[in-house]
Design a protein that fits this description.
single chain, about 375 residues, mainly alpha, Rhopdopsin 7-helix transmembrane proteins, two-stranded antiparallel sheet, about 5% strand
Length: about 375
Amino acid sequence: MPSPQVPESGNAPTEFLISEEDEEFKTFYPEIQSLVTIIVPICFGIIALTGFFGNTLVILVVLFNKKMHSTTNLLIVNLALADLLFVVLCIPFTGTDYVMENWPFGDTWCRIVHYLIVVTALASIYTLVLMSVDRFLAVVHPIRSRILRSKKFYLLYFSLCLQYKYIYVCTKLWSYHRYALYHNYPFNQQKYKPLGVTMVTCCFKNSNSFLSVADYQITFFAGSYLFPLMTISGLYLRMITRLWRQGGDIRMSVESQRGRKRVTRLVVVLVITFALLWLPIQLILLLKALNLYHATTKLKVVLQIVAQLLAYTSSCINPVLYAFLSDNFRKAFHKVSAFFRQVIYSNRCQQTTSLAKDIRKNKTVRLEGLIF
């Protein structure tokens, strides 16, 4: 494939980054552009709306229901908050980038958006790790772990995690830049753009960072996916024999055992869902960084887009899982739904009553006019 040629002008060619990912994607983009610019933003819009209302509902239900102020639900609120920040601050800009040919938000927001994507991803996976640790302690060491499972301990953990994420993700913040790309594909110029047309994209540049693209992606894959899931798997392998063994703990009531099993099942489903939804994009990004994956066919381009959509779906799927797997959340959702239905019904009744009064008043005025 012919390489793009940078026109000889003011800023030297060494100052411009030709993004391999963008180059490969844009080459085949024209043939599916009409579908991508319609379907992908619609999918992002559905994810954003579902994630916004679903995660907001989860946060409100837990905060305003004192009976649900448990440590597990505190972690669920943290997870919902991370997903809410993602759907509000990241998805709209990514969706716009699919529609528009150039990155329109400037260099600063290019850095911030990718910074937030990594921060929220790390917040989600490490909240799931802590939820798994909480389940492990509750099942294996239910008495001795009461102090460790307190809200104060979790707040301390969150503060330490925030410091870690700030230091780690700073490399991401300073490694993304907005750069001009010059496309010059003689075999594709009629379908795409004339020779020498300038394009602008938000992409990774390693010249100002101590990490190369491959180094960064390997570190991100290990730190945000492989290591957390290995930790979670180890915890559950250790816990499963204790949790499901015959007879159970004689000091624990049958109802208490059932409750712990239900909570543990919910956490397991959350972890598996997160792992499956993020696996495709994690593998693709890792292979691309290692120069083992090139989007040189329409199928690979579509696979990459679908993988990104699946990863973003993880930000809106959790409230649905709570509704199906948690009796407490399902009952709370029904109460909130009933409350809003009652408010809407009351407003309609007030409007109907007010309208009826206006009609009667108008009739009286007309009659008085006829009498006089």
